[in-house]
Request: fold
Amino acid sequence: QVQLVESGGGLVQAGGSLRLSCAATGRTKDRCAMAWFRQAPGKEREFVAVISRGGGNTAYGDSVKGRFTISRDKDKNTVFLQMNSLKPEDTATYYCAARETILTAPLSEDRSDYRYWGQGTQVTVSS
Reply:
């Protein structure tokens, strides 16, 4: 079992930055690839970024490439999402997700592959 708690959301002006954090606890947290998804009102949950279990591989959704960076601090069992050059269309609830994988598993952008989810943190970007 893995428990996830997000933090760091808030209100920011377009062009600004925010850093989201996701703290993981639980027996199998060290065996998980971690990802961020987001969901705006009336829209489906969208893939944002993923980082491998070991932290060496990452992938990003097309809409955030070059602006967002995912990273993880294994000692602190925390995953971060650094969001720069924010746009109003980035407004959404951001969710941290985790899936237990083997070390060589490919990265997944499919939300159905993720077993564990946080409660979400709201990000609002004003124009």
Notes: Residues 43 and 85 are 22 Å apart (CA to CA). DSSP finds no helices and eleven strands in the chain. The longest strand covers residues 92-100. The mean pLDDT is 96.
